[in-house]
Structures
1.
Amino acid sequence: MAEGVQIQGLCRFSLPCTGGFKKYHDSLTERRVALYAPARLDARCLWFEEVGLPGLALQTDPDFALHMLLGEDFPEPWRSRIEAVMAEVPQIVPHWRAPDDHRAICRDVLLSHRDPSRAVVAEFRLDDDDAVAIDYVAQLRRSWPKLARLAGPNGRVALDHGKGLVLQAHPDGRIETHALLTQCWSAGLALYLRPDDPGIVMDFPHHKIWQRVPFVNLTDAVMFIRGDHATNDARTPFAAAAALPIPEAEIPEILNRRFGIDIDGFRAAWAQLTQR
């Protein structure tokens, strides 16, 4: 009998592809130029190193994989930089891919790495400026026995974590923090599927997932971070969230305890980057 939960995530790091972006480009060449702009790659690498990576490295449950999708022509010196930081976390699996349809690349990677011996696979997605709390993987595994009762006939059910933080970085070097209650944002949302299910998490637009599968929204702990800055593909929907009354003075401790983030160090690095 199949047992256990397989947990795998997907992170697209400036991947040149067709589809998958809200910002329009007339050609793949134009998109590649925009994605690989030096200032943009400096910013995205910094966000991943300072915000996304610490929580992944500190997961209390190490049984997971995060598939990083990058272009096969990802330029130096950023390629060596991102290779070095990915190597710090053995659960990160890099995939250097040629340009293709966005959905096809994601499907190939996720389906080819499913374990048919597991009872269920929990799939999640992160942008390279997102983060999940250090117990996120443990929470996904721990929640499955209860969620299994809610899964529909096709075995699908989603778990949404609605308490999170937005780090809003400004071009002048300032970083504001916002503690929010949300629903169906992409970071902190996971979809449980049978291993032989032809669907993947990317088939379900996160803001509409409640229309497609049963889902549960948990708000008992701060579980995700969303980065907000000039290189985002989509703006943060602040109007669709509710503010949490967490005092600003408590945010640094929460960031460090829940995500392993040194916010003072990140603020200093961001300010230095914006002053170049």
2.
Amino acid sequence: MSLLRGVTTLTTSAFVRVAAMTLLAAAGTAWGQAAPTPEAPPAAVTQAPAMPMADGPAAAHEQFNRLLDAGDFAAAAVQARKIVEQTEREGPAHSDELQVALMNLALAEHRAGEYVAAEAAFLRVIELIEGSGRLTSPRLARAHAGLASTYHAARRYDLAATEFEIAIALNRRNEGLFNEAQLPLLERQVDSLTELGRFDEALRARRYALQVVGRRHGERSVPYARELESLGRWYTRVGSYEASRSTLRKSVELFAALSGPSSTDLVGPLTALGGNARRWLQDPQFIAAAAAGPERGVLFQDTPMPAPPALSPSTVASEGQKALEAAASIAGGNPDASPALAAGVRAQLGDWYIVREQPSKAMPHYRQAWQAAGAAADGEALRQSLFGAPQLLEYQAPSNWNRYAQRPPDEVEIRHVELELTVTAQGGVREPRAVGGNDEQRLVAQALRAVQTARYRPRLVAGEPAETTGLSFTQPFYVLRETETARPAESAPPAPPPAQGGG
């Protein structure tokens, strides 16, 4: 069995406070929160200080819950492991209690970033349940969901997609085809499938989620409008800009009809429309199609030539800007809007103008975002989050950086070009230079050219844009390993450019 195979949540037991921590709960609960990334996991549970076993099972579980609630996940995992060991000593008659203990252990290990250990614990639960013949147990669905969530957090999307499929099937068997508890699972399944490039399957899952919400709340409801917004954002992510625009406009219209034209509900789909327009305008295929006038097909008499885009760049830009301006107006004028919402929308409007090469128009919005953030309860933390350091908004990577990414691992290697640069107060790049002694001058030259396309949200100091020096930037390249039979990289056929960032 390869490491990290996939699952989620926990069990409900008299002595375990797990119901509020299951993946099937709303976002913000234990499993709904973002897990630590594999790149920077918390300290390993084996490094946590040992502690004496509390007296009695109830006290042991109470201590586990206290550690979990306090966010000391490494120590909670140590305590959960002690409970598992004690339960195992009590013999086969306590199989149900052992499953509960293992689920708690898996939860703590997952939250601590110990994904391999969490995988092992979830797999043991699944094995115990299947061995008992209780295949209809809701705990089996929760265990598979927890395993899938573990794989997802570890970015093992291939394993996560398979486990989410199992978890969703078990959930539907237990709770019904259109129960809302499956929505968080569908969300993560879509993300996994999208990361794998399996867009058709991801779209089917997205549409099923929309159907679930429609069955439960009706297609003229606020939850349905929110699900339309989520679908529209996904379309943007995969580069289906026309579909995104259409879906997000439906979401805006539905929110306006249900909540009113000045409701803060409109901010989400309006900013999503602005983000879709940004991505659309940066897409190389859209740029190329817009540049190839209708006379091109006549000139070459080539009927298969693609037609001009349905919308012109000026139309896309106008709609995107108007959507962001409308969102900013709502967030700034609605008394129900939080300062954080107002600050976030103003920052996005500033980003729009930076990417559109109009920094003088961006700065007033950044200043307004700074002022709005200061009115929030955690104003300084919010200001640092928004403006404490330059944030990359746009970058066109070298077209051949991932040319060999799909080749077998023994044929390619990844080389990194390390750059250092200055981000100007207007969000541009100045004085990039290579650091780290990279001797691949061809790659260095490509990276230096590409980094000039980068645009940043600038750092703000006391509410004013400031230059930032010494910013690090890394551009990876997939290159062929040097062998007697390998062709020189220069002779390889060109590959299409990578998908553009933004959003």
3.
Amino acid sequence: MSLSEDRRMHWGTGRVYHALLASFFLLIALQAFADPTGGLFVRLGWACLMVTCIVAGASTRRLLVVGLTLGIPAVGLLFVPGQASSIAAGSLSIATLVFICAVILRRIFNHPDVSMATVSASLVVYMALGVVWSQAYSMVERLVPGSFTGLTGTDAVLVQRDLFYYSYVTLATLGYGDINPVSPVARSLAITEAIVGQLYLVVLVAGLVGMRLAVRQSRSVR
């Protein structure tokens, strides 16, 4: 890889990763404004996240087409009322985030020189895990009401807000106990998220350290 290509990875797409990471934190902050009147701010936050995901994954025409195919319908369905549209939007959001995570992880391991772009990209994947599982929890609750106890209301916006919070609590293995999964599917998802979250951190740290050492060793040999 040439020096110009390496810089383009770290400074060009790096800005996109920083923006994408900021979009996740914006979405978390907007959860405080979720209410039964419609949660417009939260929907706008979701739309911002989906658009940034599309931009982050659009390094080639093929990836751009995949991102647009998944992300644009997900954004549109966010503003369509009804359970069916909510489930469809959740499914497409999960597909979009899984797609962008695969793209980002491939880029990380194809560029062994660890930089701020690499760190931001790695954190983006971790943040995306929480969002993916929050969408999965919400879909389970919609399909099987009562799958979770401790929710503050039955309105779709409040359920989404509570399960968004529960997802990140589970991902970080905090286990506050104010919201609990009671259905078999919900419990299986919670167990899987806790395991994946911890394994990702372990593999991420080991991988970044290994990549950093390999680059230093190759430079010292030269």
4.
Amino acid sequence: MIKLKDITKFYKSGFGKTFVLRNIDLEVEEGEFMTVMGPSGAGKSTLLYIIGMLDTASEGEYYFDGEPVHRMNERKRTELHQQNVGFVFQSYHLIDNLTVYENLETPLLYKKVKTSERKSMVADILDRFNIVAKKDLFPDQLSGGQQQLVGVARAVIMRPRLILADEPTGNLNSKQGKEIMELLRQLNDDGTTIIQVTHSEEKAAYGNRTIHLLDGWLEKRE
């Protein structure tokens, strides 16, 4: 599904370069639940954003289903992202002045889903996530756990093949965190490919493979 070859990311600073990722070679099969671990500043989120097509590499090749993402223009990359990828952020990224219902509806509006189908899809996801009673509330009326639940629901409403989760439980208590991780595991059991970034060994255990980054390098571990 995903193949990265010699992916490098750097920023020019003065006469030199500041490297964030260095020569990353990585393959992710469809249906995997992979965890990316490493200390702060290791390049974990940057790697996730490149895989999610929200950022581009400075050098190297990226293939998604055999398609050369590194050769695509921004419009084509955005299309591929919208068709295949759902993002779950640590800080939720809900739209403050929209209700839960409207936040869930937003990705469907971008995709120009018909009104009747849109209503049906939002109703289904509200029911699946047990948040029907919250549909008319605004984000600041929800707890952190409820906001993250809505964030996950919004990520999966388009039924993406790939979910990218950047510290999805970082702002939650242990009970809320466990609920989110169980939810991600269920989505993976249903066939969704998941890549999560976490500092937690406990959260990493939900996946079936863990890779480690250090100073932008992919560590080789036996």
